[in-house]
Amino acid sequence: MRVIVKSHKLQGSTSSEVNAMNSKEFYQQQHLTEDDEIDLAELWHAIWSGKLLIIIISALFAISSVLYAINQPNIYKATTLLSPTGDQGGAGGLAKMAGQFGGLASLAGINLGGGGTDKTGLALEVLKSRFFLENFITKHSLLVPLMAANNWDINTNTLMFDEEIYNITSKTWIREVKAPKKPQPSSWEAFREFKEILSIATDKGTGMVTISIEHYSPEIATQWLKLLVDDINSTMREQDKIEAQNSIEYLTKKLEETQLSDMQTVFYQLIEEQTKTIMLAEVSKEYVLKTIDPANAPEEKAKPKRALIVVLGTMLGGILSVLIVLIRYFTKKSTPTNLSNDSLSDNKSEFDTNQATEVSHKNQALGKQEYI
Questions:
Q1: Is residue 294 over pLDDT 60?
Q2: pTM value?
Q3: CB 199 within 8 A of CB 190
């Protein structure tokens, strides 16, 4: 009798636990299956139900894009095509002479230098340098039209300035900046701004150089581009003249010190080469870069691309509106699901409690029978 009662007690307890575990696993599997399902029809239904909101948001973005594109000023790009002029003597000529008489000159303790230099590459690097551009801006008084201009009146051909930055009447800078900056832009700020509107491209196949400048005024862009080409040629020309003059002074000094006739011949030829460099520099206006296609005031704007701005703005509004509609739809859908899940969980807990109480009562009754 005792063994039978214990066996009945174990069987009753095990049955209730198995039922509870089965119901729990069934609930979890059903819940996971519902969460993992993605119904394309439901997504389309969610988007279609929020079509009014999508249309409104997309329209707002489209209107904002149109207003933004219309208010953007036109930017014009002036472009010129240049060709390297080749070796104009100078360092190149001295390098050729060094190749012929370098060994002989070294016997006298004179170093004539190595190979030639790429004058075009050197000129372009100088053109992009901070020192050259800062001097260029100061020399031609470009600070105001560079830093304060914000538009151009095509009817009157006049440049318009930002009244919050520069007072055109009193010709004073009035912009509000934090220290250490000052109302008048520094040379470093002007250099960075000019670098933004200047572009230089070299064709590796032909060696041609294309230089462009962007500005609100097409005439100002063209004028600045011509001045830039003239100044870089002038800078390289003056630099070669100074180097040639220094070379002549050095060679003349060495000529006076030597008594060897062969060395004197070498020095005379080197001096002649440097004199030729000075002569070529004096007569050559386009010393390093020769103009193939001169800059002309462009009649068509380079930017902004207003149609592209409107299209991208409208697409952005459409994407954001669809995301908003989907988030709202699935948020509302998950709220009652969570409530029903909580209710099922409470019912399940209550069911498990009742089962446990029933098993406890059975065990107590069996225990009394066993005691009797």
A1: yes
A2: 0.70
A3: no
